[in-house]
Design goal:
The protein starts with 5 loop residues before the first helix and ends in a 7-residue tail after the last strand. The protein contains 11 helices and 13 strands. α5 packs parallel to α6 and α10 crosses α11. It is α/β, with parallel strands linked by helices. The chain has one domain: TIM Barrel.
């Protein structure tokens, strides 16, 4: 993989997996699969430095994948009308002119009207400057302790069920501190990078309680499955995720079902996002007595 690069190696690895599985990857990974992941949708976000990167919703009370998809779409549409926005980020989420707190006020209200739960991806490595977390729209800077207190307060105030990358990618200690305080999913993406060794480092200090699984980060399907197996053994929740620059491939939908992830982060709007949701519907219709695989959150 090191010689050819992860983008090429993961494409070859996925192609080989599909060939062996005869394009029925989820059955190849888990022959008796029944659980379907809840879609975790990016409904709003700003990729500029100095603000929360993604505002996410998940319809955790939905009883079918079709209902779950419809709820996420309804939240996304209502949010666009509320913001009167015509601008979207790379994943199809709306771009807001408001600051982070106002954004959370708006998203939470609309999500709750539709029975959806709210999460955020802070992408805190992009906020970290000169040993401070800099929120430019809020005109605030936090040191490590203040950032822990700030995120803890957001979780309580907005009943967040999911917080991704609230600290920079080397701060295992703060991830561990927040995971002890918070009754929700504390998720490592940049922290773990779908890397088995980094995950084991985190497990040793109880950093976070959930991990983003991105096959392209690790470069092969086999390495992806190894990292997922370590997470599962240590009772870390896995969230299979798309990339910001996506393709029309649906492999991650099968992967999420096959490794029994309760959440799949694949967006709401855009054909390269919706095709993954369509695949989940196909899988739902092909399974006898399918159920939604609800995540173990502690709200």
């Amino acid at each position: 993989m090191e010689e050819i690069g992860s983008n090429l190696s993961i494409a070859l690895s996925i192609a080989a997996t599909k060939a062996v599985a005869e394009n029925n990857v989820y059955r190849f990974l888990e022959p008796i699969a029944r659980g379907i992941p809840y879609p975790l949708g990016n409904v709003m976000g700003d990729w500029l430095k100095g603000s929360i990167q993604e505002y996410l919703v998940a319809p955790l009370e939905a009883t079918t994948i079709m209902e779950a998809i419809d709820i996420n779409k309804a939240v996304w549409k209502d949010l666009g009308r509320k913001l009167k926005s015509k601008s979207k980020n790379r994943e199809g989420g709306w771009i807001s002119k408001h600051d982070d707190i106002k954004n959370l006020d708006i998203v939470t209200k609309i999500a709750e009207e539709h029975g959806a739960s709210v999460g955020i991806d802070m992408a805190a490595s992009s906020l970290f400057e000169n040993e401070k977390y800099v929120f430019k729209k809020l005109k605030k800077e936090f040191d490590e302790k203040e950032q822990i207190d700030f995120v803890t307060d957001l979780i309580k105030t907005y009943r967040l069920f999911y917080v991704e990358d609230p600290f920079h990618e080397e701060d295992f200690e703060s991830f561990a501190d927040l995971a002890k305080r918070a009754k929700c999913l504390i998720v490592g993406d940049d922290l773990f990078a779908t890397n088995e060794q980094r995950l084991e480092l985190g497990i040793d200090v109880d950093a976070a309680n959930a991990i983003i699984i991105k096959p392209n980060q690790t470069g092969t399907v086999s390495r992806t499955l190894k990292t997922s197996a370590v997470a599962d053994k240590k009772k870390y929740t896995t969230i299979v995720s798309h990339r910001s620059a996506e393709t029309m491939d649906v492999f991650i939908s099968d992967l999420a079902v096959g490794i029994e992830s309760p959440l799949i982060k694949c967006g709401v709007y855009g054909k390269e996002r919706s095709i993954k949701l369509k695949r989940l519907v196909e899988i739902w219709n092909s399974i006898e007595n399918p159920v939604m695989n609800k995540p173990k959150v502690f709200i």
